[in-house]
Amino acid sequence: MPAQTPPPGAAAPAHDEPIAEIESALHSLARWLKQARLHEFLLRQAGVDIDQAGLAVLYALHAEGTSLRLTDLAERLRIDAPAVTRKAQQLERLALVSRTPDAEDARAARLQLTTEGRQAISQFLLARRQWLATLLAGWPCAERSEFARLIRQFTCDIHRHLGELDACRPGYPAARVPPPAQHPG
Q1: How far apart are CA 148 and CA 82, in angstroms?
Q2: Which of 5, 75, 87, 170 is the most buried (most CB within 10 A)?
């Protein structure tokens, strides 16, 4: 059962030690996962050369499983359309994506992975999965399974809460952002 969202302005109890530990761990985790050296390590392991923004585009297209309009891709990535357009142009020059006209709107373009783009994101995801498997190799299977269940639940709760926040923003298309992927990436 998802956690209930506290009313606006409600604060977590200051003495809640598990919450403090989770908050501290999440802060550290966010910093460490953004480290350039980790990104570079995974790229070396994967044998690909692409920046984090490019990987985000490739991953969004991979997760969608089909082509996306540039504006839809921008919404999913939560960045502005001109930034997606610039990144798409760079990825096109690298032959990782291709652009086709949108059949429903001739003014719009759809972006899709090329064979090379699918190979690059697949290699990166495999390298990341191998890295995670190495990190968790010493964990008993039951603990890995429980961790997977809990982090999936936590991710879904965050996604739900962010959707609620977006619903409070006038004109923000909260409903068009897909839920987090249910498969490990």
Answers
A1: 36
A2: 87
d(CA 91, CA 97): 6
Kindly report the pTM of this predicted structure: 0.77
Instruction: Give per-residue pLDDT as tens, 39-96.
Output: 999 999 999 999 999 999 999 999 999 999 999 999 999 899 999 999 999 999 999 9
| Residues 6 or more apart in contact with residue 180 via CB below 8 angstroms | 155, 156, 159
| DSSP letters for 84-131 | HHHHHHHHHHTTSEEEEE-SS-TT-EEEEE-HHHHHHHHHHHHHHHHH
Mean pLDDT taken over the chain: 87
Half-sphere exposure of 130 (CA within 13 A, CB side): 12
Tokens of 181: 């992927």
